[in-house]
Amino acid sequence: MKRWPLISALLAFSMMLTMLPADVFAAEEDAGELVNAQKEQIELRNSTSESDTFPLSEDDPEILMEQDEPDETGEIVGLAEDAGGTCGTDLTWTVSGTTLTISGDGVMSNYSSGSAPWYGYRDAIARLVIGDGMTNIGSYAFYGLASLGRVTFGSGITSIGDYAFCYYNYNSAVSQQCRSLTSITIPDSVTSIGTYAFAGSGLVTVNIGDGVTSIGTSAFQSCAGLMELNLGSGLTNIGNYAFRYCTSLSTVVIPDNVTSIGDYAFSGCSILAEVTLGENATRIGSYAFQNCSILKTVYLNEYLSTVESYAFQNCPQIADVYYAGTEDDWSYVTVKTGNADLTNATFHYDVVQEISVTGVTLNKSALSLTEGGSETLTATVAPSNATDKGVMWSSSNNDVQCDRHAFRRRIDHPALRHLSYGSDRYHGRR
After folding, report:
1. pLDDT tens-digit profile of 379-394?
2. What is the pLDDT of residue 39?
């Protein structure tokens, strides 16, 4: 039997195999390894309980799939699947889409840098909703949430912890900043704001409720975009460095109940032009307004007792100081070294500053009444120590008749028919 044709065919096939590139085989091997790795991941997931968690890594392809990515418009897209867990004995958290919601009752846990359970979704979270049952915001709770732009506080929050929203890290090339957070209103239920709570954030407007009594060290330091600052009437202490390097802040009105302004509190506020002290401030801390290089006008109360060293150092443009007491009263004020820019200005005695209104807000942004129903609206005037806090109402709707005491809508319109005025509270009924 002749076997040469078969042998020839085998030799030809062998030669063809040797001519194939080596990376074809490598690709097949890699594909096999990938399939095996995927099988191992599936088996691992199937053998793991829902309560187990895994460390988040930027190299983890599964985590990268879950994190938000900008769509074609550049906007953040929500998470593909909800995530959640616990953040206190009786508190739970859920991330759904771009919203982080915290529900339940009681105290939130404190965290260290980057250890909050939702930190892995920090680039996805654009909105924070805190339930009414939560009583505090823990340390580092929302540190580094770069996309966070809207915060809804629950009515039960009494304190905001250290580094709660962001921390400007001078020792790091990449600072963890809540740059998307441009406006914040601290509710009246809050009594304290912790160290570095909002430092380095993108805040432009800050409204601090009347319940806040203390602002911690560096709480708003380096909020370079901060332009509007409304301090609540209950504030008694402004901590050291509290608003240092807020380089867009042009005016500061200190509420009447503040007794002490901390060291370096407004140092480096380079466009600050006017400062008004409330009537009970007795001490201005060291370097408090240092390097406020265009500060021109300062209003001081008659109860001021001490201006600490260098409080107004390098404030060469101070032109006028309006002092509520007499010239003899001023002679008893202790002004320590380094305040020549203050003492060399022109003094005006027995002058009480008239504080202008900067804004009026209502306790509700929208109102809908049913027939026979009623609702009370509360108007809040900022700043809290404005000289004239009276409110006048007006309407862009020509069918609404307004005067100081009431709104009246013509009877042929079935919507709001009456709003009665009393002090700064308003009552509506249909």
Report:
1. 777 766 565 556 666 6
2. 38
The CA distance from 200 to 204, in Å, is: 11
Distance CA 181, CA 165 (A): 9
First-to-last alpha carbon distance for the chain, in angstroms, is 111
* Cis upstream peptide for 383 (omega within 30°): yes
pTM of this prediction?
A: 0.67
Number of H helices, E strands in the chain: 5, 28
Whether residue 179 lies inside any domain: the answer is: no
Q: How many domains does the chain fold into?
A: 1
Contact criterion met (CB below 8 Å) for 407 and 278: no
Asked if residues 305 and 334 have their Cβ atoms less than 8 Å apart, the reply is yes
Task: Give the three-class secondary structure for 76.
Answer: strand
Burial class (CB in 10 A: 0-12, 13-18, 19+), 422: exposed
Percent of the chain predicted with pLDDT > 90: 56
Q: Over the stretch 259-301, which tens digit does the pLDDT of each residue have?
A: 999 999 999 999 999 999 999 999 999 999 999 999 999 999 9
Best CA proximity match to 177, nearest among 152, 196, 155, 158: 196
Instruction: Give me the amino acid identity at 221.
Output: Q
Asked whether residue 296 is domain-assigned, the answer is no
Please compute Rg for the chain using Cα positions: 31
Regions of the chain where pLDDT drops below 50:
1-77, 80, 170-176, 400, 403-430
Domain of residue 380: give its range: 359-429
399 found inside a domain: yes
123 in any annotated domain: no
Nearest CA among 353, 337, 333 for reference residue 277: 353
